[in-house]
Amino acid sequence: MLLRRAARPMFATWFVSQGLDALRHPQGHARIVRDALDGLRTRLPEDAGTRVGGPVGDALEGRVSEEQLATVARVHGAALVVAAASLAVGRAPRTASLTLAALTLPIVLVNLPLGRKRSEQEERERTERLIRAAGFTGGALLAGADLEGRPGVGWRLQHARADRAHLRQARARWAARHSAA
Asked: Do 52 and 133 share a domain, yes or no?
């Protein structure tokens, strides 16, 4: 449909711009993630990082360098660009949309109002990022649920079962007619 062909690339532009920004300026994104981790750390028990362990535990205990966070931001940005480009050109649009929704959840999480007190301007920017990311996550979920007018898996299974039952009944009637003759 023409609407989908026009809407998907337009919808994908925000994801592409976010991904390219993370690729070009990973330090800014790493700073936002560091701030979110610091805010989360203040709300968790002191031994939370050791209990969780692994990379998440290291992040919670502050043992992740800025360069590591910048690398994570770059990888996340590249994944956003690839998934958004796939959606924009119509290659596996449902998978791309659901991937974008999953990739946008961390953006929502790092923009939650946790941590230190911020200036009014910083708080406004963080709230705008949170609302925008939450809105685009919802949009990506809707795009992922779009079946393009085709029946879904549930409908197909239900009708396949019904067709199989009708076929069995028809075979049984045919066998009953021809065995009696």
From this structure: yes
